Amino acid sequence: MSFKTWLKAIRVPFFTATVIPVTLGSVIAWYDTNNFMWMRFWLAMFGALLIHIGTNLSNDYFDHLSGCDEANPNPTPFSGGSRVIPEGLILPKKVLYASLLSFILGSSIGLYLNYLCGKNVILILGVVGVFLGFFYTAKPFRIGYGSLGELAVGIGFGPLMVMGAYYVQAQNLPFKIFLISIPVGILIALVLFINEFPDYTADKSVNKRTLVVILGKKKAVILYQILLALEYLFIIFLVIFKFIPFASLIVFFSLPLAIKAFVVSKKNYDKIY
User: Fold this and answer.
1) Is the peptide bond before 75 cis (omega within 30 degrees of 0)?
2) 3-state class of 156 per DSSP?
3) Helix (H, G, I), strand (E, B), or coil: what is residue 94?
4) Per-residue model confidence as pLDDT tens digits over 193-209
5) N or C terminus of the chain with fewer C-beta within 10 Å?
């Protein structure tokens, strides 16, 4: 069992889903307070990454128990789990133990930050985050096996991480931070959502009722496109009502990528690869 295998198991390319919201929350706090605490930033980043690792590993383990990953005949580099358990690269129990260790280490950092910040804001956000991460696929809740999985991911990697990173730096949490975190949450939820299309057959076979399974691919892709458009409309709303500065409209330089995603999803929603 190599280090490279463990990198595959923890799905490093998806760490952007943590790095971006934590950085965003920290930078907004810097903008608001004109102060930046590097030690707290790195603690928040490493703590959040450990929770993310724990989530990825626990998802692999519990998807293995349900037979979901094994039932997937067409895994891709972006869907179907890391494949380390179905391919026999790492024993299931070792994946579970590594997951629990990651959650414990990440939670320990969170408790330390909560001690530094006081008022238990980080504690509350952290408890919700760990709950969503572990019980996304674990019984008895198995959030990802119902219709709220995409919402849970959007909340966990959007508001929870952005607000937590902001509070660590600014020691307060105005309502605008929740609003600012919504576009990030939508984008990360859409990463999960679009990757549920290749998993449709496997998810349906184990009664994993994702939005794609519930709606069917044809209707689900329309919802994907609506949310993609809503992303940009919401940013305009935030600028108009001065929750974020006018310069934030620089995000519209990414519009060609969004249009490409729109067109490709429309043409290929039923083609796995």
Assistant:
1) no
2) helix
3) helix
4) 999 999 999 999 999 99
5) C
